[in-house]
Amino acid sequence: MQRKYEPMMKLKLKRVEKGLTQGELAKKIGVSQNALSMCELGVSFPKKKTLDKLADALECSIADLI
Asked: pTM for this structure?
């Protein structure tokens, strides 16, 4: 698995700060845990719609995640 993007460490930090597992956050925004993991690792980058859902779920701005 090769990284294509910078790992989204801010996303992971926000998720952990909110006390959510990858599975819990993924379910909350309607994506698979694998998809969320790939974003956190930098293998893929979420679409704008998914970024919006992540920001809403984590009660922050998109800028806080990337």
From this structure: 0.87
User: Rounded distance, CA 26 to CA 3, Å?
Assistant: 20
Task: Please say whether the dihedral angle defined by the alpha carbons of residues 57, 20, 24 and 21, taken in this order, is positive or negative.
Answer: positive
- Res 1 pLDDT > 80: no
Give percent above pLDDT 90 in the chain.
Answer: 82
Give burial (CB, 10 Å; 0-12/13-18/19+) of 35: middle
Residue among 33, 35, 53, 38 at smallest CA distance from 5: 38
